[in-house]
Amino acid sequence: MRAAFLFGAGDVRVVDAPEPAILQPTDAIVRVTASCVCGSDLHPYRRATPMPEGAAMGHEFVGVVEEVGPEVADVRPGDLVIAPFAWSDGTCDFCREGLQTSCRNGGFWGSADVPGGQGERVRVPFADGTLAVVPPGADEALLPDLLTLSDVYGTGWHAAVRGGVRTGIDVTVIGDGAVGLLAVLSAKQLGAERIILMGRHAARTDLGVEFGATDVVVERGADGVDHVKELTGGDGTRVVLEAVGHLDAFEQALGVVRAGGTVSRVGVPQYREGPIGRAQFGRNVTITGGVAPVRAYIGELLPGVLAGDVHPGRVFDRVLPLEETPEAYRLMESREALKVMLRP
């Protein structure tokens, strides 16, 4: 089969890869109908050391089940399924608590025997625990929306939930990538009254306004903090959703959060240490967030997608064939594209 592998910084290739096979009785084989490039894929793309064997890429995909192991009970061949970016058994204590990303027996796509989602087929461990089945009859036009449930929509939702967004609250969202824009959508769905989006790319922030942002702040750093405080009477907002992952974005979040407020981080941190000391302690600021257990949210978010009430798939502004995956990475790295969908 064909699949995307990373061989070093800036070096993504679509190559022939081994066909996946059932290795455990709880496995399934899924034929990928759509996958995509994630902003977090760009981190290794920018700085990976040379890898002669390459590393399988991709962790967001939807597809059709082709084969299941003898112990798979809830997933059947022919089912259209959503694969979260982490696989999980669905039965351990963490899974039962809705924290599938900490599953005692789970893991993440891209290992030697669990290849990435940017390919034609994928072996899915713990199929019953991992895969979410889409009811029969889903419109093909909903495929982009369904694909967001594998990561970016659930991650934006996780940011808002962990941040305590609720009716009437004011929120700042830092970052105009796909996760930041869907954090805006999620905050709007959860009843936020004012949503300030901090981003500099007009095409993206315009979509953020359509998703529910009431204000856009294009400045960064101290100027951005001052602008948010000016909009909020000098206080900042009760909730800040940080969807970037860089230290300056975290520092900006701390600058715009109101005393007694919450900073919820879902951007994958690209730093090991950040400020969390006396200043945050004295202002009673809560720091929360983390890796989103999107499998826990699919059941809650899927009905709105199927009903056409929301269209999170609007974050996809390019569609390319799998063979053009290197171009998808280039477009996203250069910010010529917000998010690229890959089709076989």
Task: Kindly describe this structure.
The structure is a single chain. The protein is an alpha/beta fold and 344 residues long. The protein folds into two domains: 2-151 and 293-343, Medium-chain alcohol dehydrogenases, catalytic domain (Quinone Oxidoreductase, Chain A, domain 1); 155-289, Rossmann fold (3-Layer(aba) Sandwich). Helix content is 30%, strand content 25%. Strands 3, 5, 6, 9, 10, 17 and 18 form a seven-stranded mixed β-sheet that branches. Helix 6 packs parallel to helix 7 (202-211).
Helix content percent band: 25-40%
Number of strands: 18
Instruction: Identify the overall geometry.
Output: globular
CATH architecture of the largest domain: Alpha-Beta Complex
**Rounded average pLDDT:** 95
The CATH top-level class label of the largest domain: Alpha Beta
- The portion of residues forming beta strands comes to 25-35%
Helix-strand sequence = EEEHEEEEHEEHEHHEHEHEHEHEHEHEHE
| CATH-derived topology of the largest domain | Quinone Oxidoreductase, Chain A, domain 1
Oligomer: single chain
**CA-atom Rg in angstroms:** 20 Å
Strand pairing plus helix content: what structural class? alpha/beta
Q: How many helices does DSSP assign? A: 12
Counted up, domains total: 2
Sequence stretches where pLDDT stays below 50 over 5 or more residues: none
* Name of the CATH superfamily of the largest domain: Medium-chain alcohol dehydrogenases, catalytic domain
Biggest sheet details: 7 strands, mixed
Q: For the terminal residues, how far apart are their CA atoms?
A: 11 Å
